[in-house]
Amino acid sequence: MSVSPPRIPLLQDLYADYLRGETASTFLARVKAHYERSTIERLAIMSNRFGRRAAIFSLVSMADFTSNQIVGPALQDTDRQVREIARQGIFHLWRQADDHLNQHAIEKIIDLNRQSHYAQAALNATDLLEVAPNFAEAWNQRSLSHYRLKLYTDAIRDGRRTMELNPYHFECLTRMGRCHEQLDDLISALDYFRQALHVHPDLAGVRAKVHYLQRSLSD
Q: Structure pTM?
């Protein structure tokens, strides 16, 4: 009696079509027509590496912060491409929290930080946190503003709150390490850099920093 080959999930076929040139919007429309998000999240954990790539790409393209618990661990996946897809898309998830009005507010704060308007970004983030105290990315953006303003203790405080709400925020962990460096607390800096690497092992610059601090502290 012959044994049938294992059935390949449709999601993988859809992703293969996307890689062959189908637009992202068409891919996502087809995914939404056939899958609930909970099923995609399950495939992101249980599939082979190509299936995990398809599932994580789907989640970072169409899901919101509630899928962070699936995409975050994918930063440590055994497949480098899964890790890279997660890294490139997870920032989108982090902004897709709370209601649409507050999502619009966080986009403006992000733009202010990108344009080096750090004081105004910090003020806007403070206003946003008054109405959305559990919005992790608002805490992170204010931490970034404070870091750029050289208010390192404030940046660390906001960073800690960010990590309480979003334990996968490797950029925040890295920044906290840099803050402790500026405060000449190299032991704490090393600890945060190590935490960032634990969350996302592909941070080459952070890995080099860990090696440097390990040598410095052992001298």
A: 0.91
pLDDT digits (tens, 9 = 90+) for 60-90: 999 899 999 999 999 999 999 999 999 999 9
Please say if the pLDDT value at position 120 is more than 70: yes
3-class SS of residue 151: coil
**CB count, 10 Å around CB of 219?**
5
**Residue 191 token pair:** 């600890």
Q: What is the DSSP letter of 76?
A: T
Residue type at 143?
S
Which residue is it, tokens 């080096």? 116
Question: In the structure, what pLDDT confidence band is assigned to residue 2 with cuts at 50, 70 and 90?
Answer: very low
Contact between 67 and 41 under an 8 Å Cβ cutoff? The reply is yes
Q: Which domains, and CATH codes, for the chain?
A: 10-95 (no CATH), 103-218 (1.25.40.10)
DSSP string, 89-143: HHHHHHHS-S-HHHHHHHHHHHHHHHTT-HHHHHHHHHHHHHH-TT-HHHHHHHH
Total number of residues shown for the chain: 219
